[in-house]
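Internal tracking record. Fields below are filled automatically when a chain is submitted to the structure queue. Please do not edit lines marked as system-generated. If the sequence contains nonstandard residues, flag them in the REMARKS field before resubmitting.
Queue: standard
Priority: normal
Entity type: single polypeptide chain
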Amino acid sequence: MTFSHPLARAAKAWAGPQYEKMQRTLIIVTTLALDPKSKQYKKKMVDRLASAAAEYVAANPEEASGFVLINRLRDWSAHTP
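SYSTEM-GENERATED OUTPUT FOLLOWS
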């Protein structure tokens, strides 16, 4: 089962070392503003997405042990040196 939500643009579980054992983390890409200082930040929508992610992780512990919300850079070439 994969995580899907109307506010998520993509999601994938990744494994990485943490405290000498592998932990899987659900990485969720969204277009929502995640910075509370931003004028576009909508706490209610971010909370809805985070709540759905937490429910998914609780229901699928073999898939991931936690989650992270991230924004996708819109223009990768503008951020290269």
